[in-house]
Amino acid sequence: MIEFDVFQKQIDDTLLNFKSNSLSSNYIHSLELIRGMYSNNVFISAFGTNWSPVIREVAHLATIYMQPKRYNLSSCNCATSKKCVETMKLRLESGSPWAVPGMLSGCLPLDSMLESTLECLYDQTCIDKISDALDSSIRYTPLITDHTRFHPINIMKLNNITKQLFIEKWSESVSFEAYFNACHIDKCSYTISKRFNIGYVSSTVIAFYGGLSVGLTLAIPLVFKIVQKCLLNRNTRRVVSINTS
Fold this sequence. Notes:
Keywords: Membrane, Transmembrane, Transmembrane helix. The protein is of the alpha+beta class. It has a domain of 158 residues. 47% of the residues lie in helices and 13% in strands. The strands form 3 sheets. A two-stranded antiparallel ribbon has the order 1-2. Strands 3-4 form a two-stranded antiparallel sheet. A two-stranded antiparallel ribbon has the order 5-6. β1 and β2 form a beta hairpin. The longest helix has 47 residues. The two termini are 86 Å apart.
């Protein structure tokens, strides 16, 4: 059995390790594996965000070349870096381009999404513009800012939120009473094993010798007196017996 303070500390450490290491590390490992497979194998995005085909001449069995996409005013090339991103732009129904707040586009959709924020999803006007650009007739309701712990919403990247597994709140139920009822013991015993200690043996011998000396000092005079008394009584009886005869 352990005391309540020790019990609570062990529970807190276990939960903290589970939250910050076990779950998070498994997720990060899987995510980085997927991202590495895409970038290292130079996979072509289905949306054509990293490479685009180029045909230099129209002919039978013509060679198709792949040209890397460029972002940030052509300052970043998807052939040399997978981290090229820029502000996402959609074309509204009116035909004018519109930069989506907090959302990025780049070489790989997954990387772009993780570098984006969700601030647009908390704004009804922003959501309506996205619906307009996508020609959607469905009206979506924005998220409620007060219902999330991931603040500020215009800075918190989706990458940081996913590392916390989108968990808004942890609910924990810990009972020391239940632990005590399940693990309490009726009795206990222990054995102490020690190596040979010359100091301990010496002190024990000296203490024994001292105790024996004191005991003999007290006992010998007493024994001597008893023996002497017995001898005197014996001699006295012998003298009386002789006189009588």
